[in-house]
Amino acid sequence: MNIPANLKYTKDHEWLKVEGNIGVIGITDFAQGELGDIVYIDINPDLAEIKQGESFGTIEAVKTVSDMYAPVDGKIVEINKKLNDDPQLVNSDPYGEGWIVKIELTDSSQIGSLLDSSAYQAQLGQ
What we know:
Layout: E1 8-9, E2 14-19, E3 22-27, H1 29-35, E4 38-42, E5 49-50, E6 55-61, E7 65-69, E8 74-79, H2 82-85, H3 89-92, E9 101-105, H4 117-123
């Protein structure tokens, strides 16, 4: 299982990559594996802000629907439109082309409350 060291993680299996004041959010390799074949990503296109710990959309797989939770507060700057036509990018490349949203960070101190790769790996019992 792939758990990149340069990312931060939530206990709910989202990841955050910080690039300056921009945060890129997706779901982990573990999460996509548990969900199975992803068929649809639902994020309100009018969503302007997300709040740490709150659902910002759902991810639908063949066997289940799951909420996605914001790892930190932020203003939405981009939603990955490629996922509209090819939601399985989340399965094939969860840390690359399968990213879900980009945000402008509004409280960078929240990053410290997230798990690093070793803590996330320990949570999974790896």
